[in-house]
Amino acid sequence: MAEEDEKERDDNEQINVPQLDEEGIHEFKDALARSDQQELEEVYERYQPIDFASEMEDFDDEEMAQTCALFSDEELGEILEEADEDLQGRMIGLLDNGRVLRIFKYMQKDNVADLLGALPTDRRKQLFNLMSGGDKRTLHELLGYSEDSAGGIMTTAYIALSKDLTIAETIQKIKAIGPRTEVIEIIYVLNEQKQLIGTADLRDILIADNNDKLETIMDDQVVSVEPEVDQEQVSLLVSKYDLQAIPVVNKRKAMLGIITVDDIIDVIVEEHTEDMLQMAGVDKEESVNSTFMESVKLRLPWLLVNLLTAFLAAFTIKAFNSTIE
Q1: Of 8-17, 119-128, 156-165, minimum mean pLDDT range
Q2: Are 180 and 173 in contact (CB under 8 A)?
Q3: Domain boundary assignment for the chain
Q4: CB atoms < 10 A from the CB of 55, how many?
């Protein structure tokens, strides 16, 4: 056991990630206790949003409300994107609708859709009614797909440009659209019918002649999926073809969104965890907070299967008892 602890410490020393350590946690809580927004900003800049999300899971409602009041909209958006569903629900529950909509502007649309899907129906309707038409249409579309499908995990923050643009025009478009997108390394190329016909690497764009057309440097061998494809199948495609992102298209080859590699990593972890739980006869929906009856309901099918196979094994042994003797 001591050897394992020592190995873990050695491994941690070799990982250069600015993790929220005990000193950082002390500074974080001290800034909250004194309502010192400037110090809180300085602490936040030194660490990762996911560390603050993990620390906030143990906060009571008063601490949570104070934290939300001191953090900026952008910082809360970053924390919400990293938080689990329970923490997201608690944070949103303590914020008014106007603040929530301001925070949503700093979040990717796919993450906003996931968050909205987990909210109570009344609160979700209130937020939808206050949104602009474009945001409302995008989120309605994302919420219409199964959460474990390509459409359910895609984002609409990408750059798609016409094949007829020159390289100079393309660069100007990237500069204008880039700050609002999740991925700028890959530019998706569309024809006159707005169909996806290729991709262009940002590096190739930057070294190309300004007067060349975008279609002359694009790669027309595009790997894409339709929104109904299962997320596990999407992850296998990304792994097989070593993609940074994979586009999602409808049956007419019009682009709907993209799935980025960070979402694929989440899918791989989720699917692996689900497989491991199923091997142990535990449903992925079960948690430490599940009631006794919920656990029975989730485990009963597997327990019955195990019981039936045990009866079958006992019957088989009895039938061949004389042979065994």
Answers
A1: 8-17
A2: no
A3: 17-144
A4: 17
pLDDT at 255 over 80: yes
- The pTM assigned to this predicted structure is 0.63
What per-residue string of b and e applies to 59-77 under the rule 16 or more CB within 10 Å gives b?
beeeebbebbebbebebbb
Asked if 28 and 43 touch (Cβ cutoff 8 Å), the reply is yes
Confidence of residue 218 (pLDDT cuts 50, 70, 90): very high
CATH 1.25.60.10 fits 17-144, yes or no: yes
Collapsed DSSP state (helix, strand, coil) of residue 258: strand
Question: What is the identity of the amino acid at 286?
Answer: E
CA end-to-end span of the chain, whole Å?
A: 45
Q: Which amino acid appears at position 109 of this protein? A: K
Strands 196-201 and 245-249: unpaired
Report which of 27, 36, 79 is spatially closest to residue 54, judged by C-alpha positions: 79
Res 84 pLDDT > 60: yes
Q: Tell me the DSSP string of 198-246.
A: EEEEHHHHHHS-TTSBGGGT-B-----B-TTSBHHHHHHHHHHHT-SEE
Q: Please work out, in degrees rounded to the nearest 5, the angle formed at the alpha carbon of residue 285 by the alpha carbons of 284 and 291.
A: 130
